[in-house]
Amino acid sequence: MSTPPTLKLPPCARAYRLDTARGAFAVHDARPDGHPAGTALLVPGFTGSKECFIGLLEPLAAAGFRVLAVDGRGQHESPGPREESAYAQRELALDVLAQAEALGGPVHLLGHSLGGLITRAAVLLDPAPFRSLTVLSSGPAAIDETQQVRVRMLIEALGTLEMEAVWQAMRELDPVEAADESTPPEIGAFLHRRWLNTVPEQLTVTGRQMLSEPDRVAELAAVALPKHVISGAVDYAWPVPLMDAMAERLAAHRTVIEGAEHSPNAEQPAATAAALAGFWRGVR
After folding, report:
1. Which of 26, 63, 162, 254 has the fewest Cβ atoms within 10 Å of its own Cβ atom?
2. Residue ranges of the AB hydrolase-1 domain (predicted)?
3. 200 falls within a domain
């Protein structure tokens, strides 16, 4: 889960609901002064939300880009049904395509973690609405075996407990984070609220996706779209050497953000924004 550095939107951004052919989605929309050099759509990861990208909004807008960070269906402030079929990967990928269409495309597409798998699926369904694809802290297939244990435990708990009880159980399993006094109270309260707002079926189905995702790198490499792989210097979900190899297979631009782990967007937003803006400027 990404912990945003702040919850305050910069002056260049506003929050609203983006209407699409597949429903309305909660977004943060940051706009530059003058005509944008491009538009980017940012898709969050497992247990995440649009707030995961809040640190990127101001520097990317200052670099000349319009940026929309979105809550996917069933995530935080975007509604979703209590039916597992609604969260199949294809359904989530079709949502991304609808969001891009609503923005007037083509857009630069970015997916963080689970969002990298969803955005990859969207590009493989139809690359036309996109100018580029950036995979942020996401790998070629299923997550690392050490993390699969945690996700399986979470899925099992979601099948038997209420969301509040699962939250408390997660805090007990991660005592260092739970006792981290450096997390401001308002951020801690937000993380709790976001968890309770997320549809449990969304977490269950997308958790299974991370456990069983096949390697689709060869398919993606065949798509004639500029690609960028970004990660921190350390990653627990997909080891960094795995992402290095994926970037080579994709003939993708590769960036490693020093001082960051699984969420460079929140941990080192200035460096991450600079890497994104540099890549997007080079896309023709």
Report:
1. 162
2. 41-275
3. no
Whether residue 231 is contained in a domain is answered as yes
Phi first, then psi: what are they for 19, rounded to 5°? -85, 130
Which of 84-93, 135-144, 183-192, 235-244 is predicted least confidently? 183-192
Report how many domains make up the chain: 1
Written as one letter, the residue type at 269 is P
DSSP-assigned letter for residue 53: G
Q: Which residue range(s) make up the domain with 39?
A: 13-141+214-281
CATH, residue 115: 3.40.50.1820
- Asked whether 38 and 280 are in contact (CB, 8 A), the reply is yes
Distance CA 249, CA 280 (A): 20
pLDDT mean over 39-54: 98
Tell me phi and psi for residue 49, to 5 degrees: -165, 180
CA distance 46 to 114: 5
Assess if residue 150 is contained within a domain.
no
The 10s digit of each residue's pLDDT in 185-233 is 999 999 999 999 999 999 999 999 999 999 999 999 999 999 999 999 9
Per the listing, tokens 């096949």 go with 214
Q: Return the ∠ at Cα 44 (arms to 43 and 45), rounded to 5°.
A: 130
Cα 12 from Cα 164, distance rounded (Å) = 35
Closest to 216 (Cα-Cα) out of 44, 90, 78: 90
Residue-wise pLDDT tens digits, 154-193: 999 999 999 999 999 888 766 444 445 578 999 999 999 9
* Among 227, 14, 10, 36, CA closest to 130: 227
Six token digits for residue 209: 């996706």
